[in-house]
Amino acid sequence: MTRTEYPWLLPSAMADPLDPELPGDRAGGRGRSRPRRTVRDWIVDTVGFVLAAFIGLLSVEASEQYGNSDVITFADQLVGAAACCALWLRRRWPVGLALILSVTQTIAPSTGGALLVALFGVAVHRPFKQVALVTSAALASGVVQVFVRPDPTVHPVLGVVIAVLLVLLVTGWGMLVRARRQLVVALRERARRAEAEAELRAQQAQRAAREAIAREMHDVLAHRLTLLSVHAGALEFRPDAPTAEIARAAGVIRDSAHEALQDLREIIGVLRAPGDQGEGDRPQPTLATLDALISESRQAGMTVALDNTVGDPATVPAATGRTVYRIAQEGLTNARKHAPGTEVTVTVRGRPGEGLTVGVHNPAPTGPVPHVPGSGQGLIGLTERATLAGGRMDHGAAPDGGFALHAWLPWPS
């Protein structure tokens, strides 16, 4: 017999995820070493040794009563003692030890207890194929032992039944313990995976919330900050402007900065935990506040024409009206940045059941356009917002060379 023919007899092939003593690499990776036994391992091995020794002593005592010679009885005692001592190697050589004990049991009944303990260890720590092999060997040795070393007080058929039942009972008990340990390992792995998935979902939700807040901050603050940029630029390039015009521009800058701070405070308030004390939030913009937005833009020097055919803006759902407000706000902001001095037309039409449309159009600028930072992220965010609301939004160059923005939003009847 060579090692390559029976690799399952090698210690290195005995690794099992349920075995408390898995082999570890030695320094240099050229060998295997096993960790030291824990207190629990010592207790289990000691109990197994005592149990095997007790069963062996009962077998030896029965052998003496059956009239066996002193030589046979002494040989049984030696073999039984050796088998019990060999149990301390069962963690390293479980399958090989169980097979050897199966052979010795046929001629030495005192090794029966050691065989049952070794069989239990194999059933707990080894896969089904190895368990089936060892169990078959134990069953065969039990049957053979009944006829080689018979018990005069027990009928051979009953002896075979008892041997088979003992082997199957120990094997079933060990496989039950193994199944329970596998279940515990699986539940722990599932719990670990669930925790990792929950943490990942929390991170994704946090990232989505941050992106939503970032888009909201852009929608709210871009309009205010553009006003600040335009009027500050006017004061910089026209230091000789009339005092009244300078005062008006300074007032617009002050008001816009105040409004920007208020809007920023409003958005940051979303991040507060429930129960945190803070200032009361201002009402969110709706379609009813669109006129105030147009008036604010006109005060900033823009020429804005509003065509609103919605008779009662209060009947428009709040979320839809807020989206319309943000679209018009972004359109006015872009026109002020990229087409200053042109007339901007804002159109709002619709009725319940047909939806609500909003359009912002500005012609091409006639003079030089000042450079104002911008990357188009506002239009991307508005397109996404309109899509999430169940509508759509298109934007791009108009036939007259200007820029047009058009959106449709649902308005339930």
Q: Could you explain the architecture of this structure?
A:
Residues 210-275 form the Signal transduction histidine kinase subgroup 3 dimerisation and phosphoacceptor domain. Residues 186-215 form a coiled coil. Keywords: ATP-binding, Coiled coil, Kinase, Membrane, Nucleotide-binding, Phosphoprotein, Transferase, Transmembrane, Transmembrane helix, Two-component regulatory system. It catalyses: ATP + protein L-histidine = ADP + protein N-phospho-L-histidine. It comes from Streptomyces purpureus. The protein is an alpha+beta fold and 413 residues long. Among the domains are: 7-153, no CATH class; 287-364 and 375-413, 2-Layer Sandwich (Heat Shock Protein 90). Helices cover 59% and strands 10% of the residues. It is built from ten helices and seven strands. Helix 5 runs antiparallel to helix 6 (156-237). It is rod-shaped. Residues 1-17, 20-32 and 273-280 have low confidence and may be disordered.
